[in-house]
Design brief:
By secondary structure, the chain is mainly β. The chain is built from three helices and 31 strands. The strands form five sheets. Strands 1, 2, 3, 5, 6, 7, 8, 9, 11, 12 and 13 form an eleven-stranded antiparallel sheet that branches. Strands 15, 16, 17, 18, 21, 22, 26, 27, 28, 30 and 31 form an eleven-stranded antiparallel sheet that branches.
């Protein structure tokens, strides 16, 4: 493992140019970044860890190499929550694993990883799940299979002085198998240590991997000093974070250490936050989300708020998508393909954004400082060109009754630019400035779902006696995907064509999107807040939960 020292602030790669002298030059300044650019963070440490693992595949226990890359802060204050960024997990499976997958008729795989990360400070510990996803990867004709997944991870806060360490633990790799024609091939599970499965022709495989005994540093990924001291001070003072810092709440509960000196922060477990720290908007600041005479509910109607971020790869920045109302018609589960190890049910639901009687998001703004001198702002909306489709497949294990649910949301959405400003001066882009087609994702099932649309994916898991994790349509969660931004059309007035400028500055592939859906409100059977129940609906049948966006 190599850990680079804290990086000094890096100079911007954007060169300052002369001030705009015409509308066209000003337009380029504005159009060059429709979303805020992200400055290089100072005081960070870049970590690249290469670790040996042993993975259970149907052919047996096989060695694998796992590389984890991420950026951590160089230091943190007590109670200050931070999120490791740029997390990438690269798994290299040996050639024998490729033979296993090819033997099941697979020509390509889509990987999702779940890395168990131990977080420790002094003698206290906590666990965090680092999840990642990847686009489909073709099986190589020879040699190892390399899978690269990316995703966001929970925030962490040290609750006392002392080093906060992050160590890699067990790894699960969920593989969706597809044949050469892009169709799924069935289902199977490889249990850790047994390599059992349901035979060839299976369309999914879960590979469980354990950290090898000779792993350097027992899987150590990074160390972040917290507070005023270094190392593990004994009974040192515990300063609080600066005012206004978004940190871990002090719940006042012991952290599995009995009642021995619970007031000493240096002995309290690090706080792992499943959501990036933030505060949900006030209800007065979000649009209404209710059914009305033009949109009467049925007995399967749901409504929910969604929010999130959308990246623009060319600009290395992200735009905040404010809470938007979605009206959902939940489908009826039907039996899925037969499998000896699982009960499988498929559900198809449909949804629409709902804002001022239109199928679109509320307008959202991206404000930034371009070329270090020109403040610019863009106002945009995402508009539907057709109904969104939600496909969910639930698999219940016949052995332990655990369930996993894979959900794909297919949304035909164009990006419509409403207004642009440079240095407070409006720039007229006209009323029809938008992408030529919908945002486009690579669909896992193109034969059945042709055409241009965005694809977002989420997986939910439920173990008996434990709360559900991940994404489920009813309870919400995180959906993520990657999209190509098409070329723009209709931008500009009075004979000034801004399409090329906008296309050159923004359009292109590799733009990550992360959406958080809140708990739904079931209109026919609303659950109102009470001393014994968490609220799902307000008294006027709007979603009770307003979710918080996650980077």
């Amino acid at each position: 493992m190599k850990a680079k020292p804290a990086a000094a602030p890096r100079p911007s790669r954007v060169r300052t140019r002369g001030r705009a002298r015409s509308t066209s030059i000003a337009a380029f300044v504005v159009l060059a970044a429709l979303v805020p650019t992200t400055a290089s963070a100072s005081g960070t440490q870049e970590v690249e860890a290469e670790l040996p693992y042993v993975c259970a595949l149907p052919s047996g226990q096989l060695p694998a190499t796992v590389r984890v890359a991420a950026e951590f802060p160089a230091r943190a204050e007590v109670g200050e929550a931070f999120t490791p960024s740029g997390v990438t997990t690269t798994v290299e499976l040996p050639e024998e694993a490729v033979a296993d997958l090819a033997g099941r008729g697979a020509a390509e795989v889509r990987a999702a990883t779940r890395l168990d990360v131990g977080v420790a400070q002094n003698a206290a510990t906590a666990r965090a799940a680092w999840r990642g996803g990847a686009e489909p990867t073709a099986l190589p004709e020879s040699g190892p299979l390399t899978l690269v997944t990316r995703g966001d991870v929970p925030s962490v806060a040290g609750r006392g002085d002392g080093d906060l360490t992050f160590s890699a633990g067990s790894l699960a790799i969920d593989l969706t198998l597809a044949a050469a024609d892009g169709t799924a091939t069935g289902t199977a599970t490889a249990d850790s240590g047994s390599g059992s499965d349901s035979g060839s022709g299976s369309g999914s495989l879960t590979v469980d991997c354990a950290l090898a005994e000779d792993a350097p540093g027992q899987g150590l990924l990074a160390t972040v000093p917290v507070g005023t001291g270094t190392g593990a001070p004994s009974g040192s003072p515990s300063p609080t974070g600066p005012a206004g810092t978004s940190g871990a709440p002090d719940d006042g509960q012991p952290d599995g250490r009995g009642d021995r000196q619970p007031e000493r922060q240096s002995e309290r477990s690090p706080k792992v936050l499943e959501n990036t720290p933030g505060t949900a908007p006030d209800r007065d600041d979000v649009p209404p989300c209710r059914y009305d005479e033009q949109h009467p509910p049925t007995d399967v109607s749901l409504n929910a708020y969604v929010t999130g971020y959308a990246n623009v790869k060319k600009l290395k920045g992200a735009a905040y998508l404010p809470p938007s109302c979605v009206l959902i018609e939940q489908g009826v589960p039907v039996p899925g393909p037969p499998d000896p190890d699982y009960l499988i049910f498929d559900t198809v639901s449909y949804a629409n954004f709902h804002y001022q009687e239109r199928r679109q998001t509320p307008p959202f703004e991206a404000t930034f400082l371009s070329f270090d001198f020109a403040p610019v702002k863009a106002t945009m909306v995402l508009e539907q060109t057709d109904t969104m489709r939600i496909d969910s497949r639930m698999k219940m294990s016949m052995t332990d009754f655990s369930t996993t649910t894979d959900t794909y949301v297919r949304a035909p959405l164009v990006l419509h630019v409403l207004d642009l400003e440079v240095n407070g001066t409006p720039l007229d882009v006209g009323s029809e400035c938008r992408t030529e087609t919908s945002l486009v994702s690579e669909d896992p099932d193109p034969a059945n779902f042709p055409g241009d649309h965005l694809v977002l994916y989420g997986r939910g898991e439920l173990l008996i006696g434990q709360p559900a994790t991940g994404y489920l349509l009813l309870s919400g969660g995180v959906l993520a995907g990657e999209a190509t931004i098409p070329a723009f059309t209709g931008c500009g007035t009075d004979g000034e064509d801004l399409d090329r400028l906008l296309t050159a500055s923004v359009s292109g592939p590799g733009n990550l999107i992360k959406q958080v859906q809140g708990q739904t409100c079931a209109i026919a059977a609303p659950v109102f807040p009470s001393p014994t129940n968490e609220g799902q609906c307000t008294e006027d049948l709007q979603p009770y939960e307003i979710p918080v966006a996650e980077h």
